[in-house]
Design brief:
The chain has 289 residues and is of the alpha/beta class. It has 6 helices and 15 strands. It has a 7-stranded mixed sheet with strand order 10-9-8-7-11-12-15. It is globular. The relative contact order is 0.14. Residues 1-7 have low confidence and may be disordered. The structure holds flavin-adenine dinucleotide and FE2/S2 (inorganic) cluster. The site of flavin-adenine dinucleotide has 22 residues, from strand 4, strand 5 and helix 2.
Length: 289
């Protein structure tokens, strides 16, 4: 398998930073309530062969005449010819995406943004903490860990959702566990047939023994969840520079032109979405965080 390094993959621009390329919907998988994964392949084979991405980066998906949305790449960085995007139907553009069929064409540009620190994590333990659709941008990191399993130490996934029906990729959990990734799940409220944990994701930390000096925490989910994940990680003395968050703020251009994604002086589309808490801490007190 082609396993890329984890240097930031740069966008394909062809001279125009907002250049999009036609891509075909090759497969659609219903993952959860109002969430599906769209596999996309560039129509132009040469474009497809040039494209690669790092775990945590995102693409802009364009529906001509409707609009454009930033969506994380949720598939294996080792097979960038086939690009997964796991999408929750939220509003105007994503509802239009819900009407797509296999064979339909969308515009695709990217990859954009920063990525999970998979090189820095080599030789370290990794604790992935995520909620709901937040698992989508972390799935490429899980694939990368599996592709190079011996490079990493203990790997733990803490994953929560409102209900069991909102959980993504449940049919992959066994494979992940077979690759020595501990999977701990929780749902917000008890439901019939559920025998696992009940409660919010940060509570899963109470069941863990972590080696704080040698653990990286990677988290993505609702901002309130990430706030408590940061508190729990800091309480376990994990250094600020080893706690990584993905800040999926509203974005329009994806390339640093419009300012929609700005937090303080930082453009989340370029310097983010993945930042260490050490980079992000000055903005921890700002609205919505
Ligand atoms: C870097 C990045 C990666 C993303 N990855 C994914 C992904 O993998 N899967 C996925 O389903 N979504 C992802 N999103 C969110 C997705 O881009 C928005 O849901 C989408 O733009 C909504 O567009 P819309 O036209 O369908 O909805 P709109 O009609 O524009 O909005 C519908 C509602 O969603 C809210 N909304 C819009 N954007 C966001 C956002 N970024 N965060 C929270 N609420 C928002 C609006 O305020 C409004 O309340 C990502 C966003 C960013 C910035
Ligand atoms: S989305 Fe336009 S500057 Fe970041």
């Amino acid at each position: 398998m082609n396993v890329p390094n984890t240097l930031t993959a740069t966008p394909m621009t062809n001279g125009n930073p907002m250049q999009d390329y036609p891509a075909v919907v090759t497969e659609i998988t219903e993952d959860a309530v109002a969430v599906a994964t769209y596999m996309l392949a560039f129509q132009d084979v040469d474009v497809g062969q040039q494209f690669n991405f790092s775990a945590g980066q995102f693409n802009m998906i364009l529906l001509p005449g409707i609009g454009e949305v930033p969506i994380s790449i949720s598939s294996d960085p080792g097979t960038p010819q086939s690009l997964g995007h796991t999408i929750r139907y939220a509003g105007n553009v994503t509802s239009a995406i819900a009407r797509l069929q296999t064979g339909d064409i969308v515009g695709l540009r990217g990859p954009y943004g920063s990525h999970w620190p998979m090189d820095k994590a080599i030789g370290q333990d990794i604790c992935i903490v995520t909620g709901g659709i937040g698992l989508a941008p972390l799935r490429p990191a899980i694939y990368e860990i599996i592709n190079k399993r011996d490079d990493y130490g203990q790997v733990i996934l803490l994953y929560g959702a409102r209900t069991s029906a909102d959980m993504l990729y449940t049919d992959e959990f066994d494979t992940w566990q077979n690759h020595d990734i501990q999977v701990h799940t929780t749902i917000d409220r008890a439901e019939e047939g559920w025998s696992g944990h009940v409660g919010v994701v940060p509570m899963l930390f109470y069941h863990l023994r972590l080696d704080p000096a040698n653990t990286l925490v990677l988290t993505c989910g609702p901002e309130i969840m990430m706030r408590f994940v940061i508190y729990e990680a800091l309480a376990r003395r994990i250094p600020r520079e080893n706690i990584y968050v993905s800040m999926e703020r509203n974005m329009k251009c994806g390339v640093g032109f419009c300012g929609h994604c700005q937090i303080g002086p930082k453009f989340m589309c370029k310097e983010g979405p993945v930042l260490s808490f050490a980079q992000f801490e000055p903005f921890f007190g700002v609205e919505d965080f």
